[in-house]
TrEMBL record, chain A:
Forms a stable energy-coupling factor (ECF) transporter complex composed of 2 membrane-embedded substrate-binding proteins (S component), 2 ATP-binding proteins (A component) and 2 transmembrane proteins (T component). It is found in: Cell membrane. This is Energy-coupling factor transporter ATP-binding protein EcfA2. It comes from Tissierella pigra. It is a peripheral membrane protein. Residues 3-245 form the ABC transporter domain. Gene3D superfamilies: P-loop containing nucleotide triphosphate hydrolases. Keywords: ATP-binding, Cell membrane, Membrane, Nucleotide-binding, Translocase, Transport.
From TrEMBL, chain B:
It is found in: Cell membrane. It is a peripheral membrane protein. Residues 6-245 form the ABC transporter domain. GO terms for molecular function: ATP binding; ATP hydrolysis activity; ATPase-coupled transmembrane transporter activity. SMART domains: AAA. One of its GO terms (cellular component) is ATP-binding cassette (ABC) transporter complex. This is Energy-coupling factor transporter ATPase. The keyword tRNA processing does not apply. InterPro entries: AAA+_ATPase, ABC_transporter-like_ATP-bd, ABC_transporter-like_CS, ABC_transpr_CbiO/EcfA_su, ECF_ABC_transporter_ATP-bd, EcfA_1, P-loop_NTPase. Belongs to the ABC transporter superfamily. It comes from the Bacteria. The lineage of its organism: Bacteria, Bacillati, Bacillota, Tissierellia, Tissierellales. It comes from Tissierella pigra. Gene3D superfamilies: P-loop containing nucleotide triphosphate hydrolases. Pfam families: ABC_tran.
Amino acid sequence: MIMKINNLNYIYNPNTPFEKKALDNINLEINEGEFIGLIGHTGSGKSTLVQHLNGLIKPSSGAIIIDGVNITDKDVNLKEIRQKVGLVFQYPEHQLFEETIYKDIAFGPKNLGLSDDEVDKRVKESMELVGLDFEALKDRSPFELSGGQKRRVAIAGVIAMKPKILVLDEPTAGLDPHGRDEILGEIQKLYDKEGITIILVSHSMEDIAKLVQRILVMHRGKLEMDGKPREIFKKVDELENLGLGVPQITKFMKIFKEKGNHVNDDILTVHEAKEEILKFLRRKKDA
Amino acid sequence: MSDIMIKADNVTYEYKSLIDDNIHQAVKEISLEVKKGEFLVILGHNGSGKSTLAKLMNGLIMPTNGNVYVAGMDTQDEKNIWNIREKAGMVFQNPDNQIVATIVEEDVAFGPENLGIDPKEIRARVDKALEVVEMTEYKKHAPHLLSGGQKQRVGIAGILAMNPDCIILDEPTAMLDPIGRIEVMNTIKKLNKNENKTIILITHYMDEAVEADRILVMEQGQIVMEGCPRNIFKQVDKIKELGLDVPQVTELVYELRKAGINLKDDIISIEELVELL
């Protein structure tokens, strides 16, 4: 187990009229190598939870144990924790600051006190992992790149820290469909190749359905649901009540079944829907 | 009165690249007409020229060649510029960048105040605008405490208070969560249907694009596809080639047709597909 959260609470502005419980008794275990989707509407507490995971926020009460270390302990080494848990914020390209792409990605590893050779190796590897050509781009300014490419540089900077857990907060926000597919493809590749634990925060149920093995649903500071995508996305009405949706194709299959058609509505992708509808049509023909 | 809201006549927009000093054409020889009351969606991947085209449409930038007319007024004629901005208002992606005041109703009043309008009239316009975007109960609130969808609706109210005939929205839902997106899309549809505003919506979300009367697809500064949503989305291969998406139900129909099932090819909603099968 790479992460364990016990009775985690977080209260904003305690003892003031603006007091608000942002996290309400969260209990959670995450195993090494899991690919997790974290969903919930704005204000549900998902960003607050994510910021706890590498010690950016201290809980009001409760414990967060990462790789055997309780990060809420007073004498914990936060630098070590932040290396273990890499956090890619929303619009991470706003955080680029160096003159060259190489320097920007090298900034984190250098601060870890690694040798120049090791830094060099890590910059190369992480650029390759996010699909950026090392030789062609290393000396260019990150500010000359397109939005999608800038975002890759920012992600590469986090990957170069070799985190055990990578948390991505809405990595595809604001990208066009092509840019979105590319970034998601690279995250999938990174997962397959490095086997790290990934937590993906997203509003796109289609993206979540395509990628993750387990979904956590947050609502009003509570962990409302926890399960496999198939189980979670079956609860269409409950999700909609929480201000969330399901992929359009999942919803279509559910409505189609409700109309009295005998199909399996346990569908997450267009490909699965196609197979199921083809079966349905064949049965109808044979009957 | 002509029924044309915006007309672009052979418009090209060039800029000098900061990277290689070369001249690039963001918009190339585009001619188009947007009718009054129309709901037009512009699609295209990042860098295809959509936002440049939008900025040309309310005189934020001037064409290098050709002319843009808003309600018959040439955007390059300096004396028209304030009239043009009153006719065609623009809403951008990030609501936080558009909010100027610390109270919602003051923010909405900012535009008309700058037009030098009578305070009584401003009061009436602000109340009406907040009512249309369904934010009346928040009029005394601080904008920074609102949700993304609420902030974006306040931004739209600020434009509405200028009484424009046309509203241009550049990815207004890109930064919003699913609820915020639905709120803003419902507002946009209402502006078009009930308030008779001409809408030009730039978006990457195909479920928003299916609501349009007409879609333009841009690629490398040019319009490469044009038509009603049904006719655009049934061209699944071409749309994907352009780096865009189609709704999942449209894709399912496309896949079923490829597998030899004989189906109508212009399906864009769940309800239609349920009917069809």
